[in-house]
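hey so i finally got around to running both of the ones u sent me last week. sorry it took forever, my laptop kept dying halfway thru and i had to restart like 3 times lol. anyway pasting them below in the order u listed, first the sequence line then the structure token line for each. didnt double check formatting much so if smth looks off just lmk and ill redo it

first one:
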Amino acid sequence: MLYGEKVYMREPVREDIEELYDTCADEDVLKYNGLSTGVMTKEYINSQFRHLTKPNKKELVIVTNSSDLIGYVYYKENSYTRDVYSIGITIGKKFWNKGYGFDSIRTLCSYLFNSKKAHKIELEVVCQNKRAINCYRKCGFKDEGIRRSKYYYDGEYLDTLVMGLLREEFI
């Protein structure tokens, strides 16, 4: 388990599927989580659950100190270079603007830099997701570029922002 100030992250268990669905199936959450159909089913979450044990990708559920399951994070080492990890996060809407995302990202970065000896952590975020971009910048991530028309949602293509954080930049 990984422990932050407001949250801890643990391995998911099958009993988390229902709660993850209820937390993450909101339309505003779906808009930016990479599911281009905009429809999340329990079967979809269950299929993702089966992939959680893949060696190149690790997912952890995020739980508040008061035991609310609020979302999940993932990380994976990139195949094109050593010690570079990609990360992502999804948090339920009713938990936005409470500092949980910041604490989750900082805790995950600390783990990757200190335990996995990461050289760099990178991510990609839809340019319209200002809340997430501000959180990542607050965590120390720097803008690295725009990928034009990379993300498809609700009938239109949107740009994504590539962001990165080097070990020496992490405070």
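and the second one:
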Amino acid sequence: MDTIIKLEKISQRNTLKGIETLHPLISVFDNTDTENLPNHSRCI
């Protein structure tokens, strides 16, 4: 079964991807330079 990761803030997603949070509501980044999410996981 897939692991479900519940995110409530942009900063939580950015931490998972290994990028800096510059704004609390918006995040734009180049996905080729970021960390992979854990295998078999879903973010909601």
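quick thing i noticed on the 2nd:
The first helix runs from residue 10 to 17.
anyway thats it, ttyl
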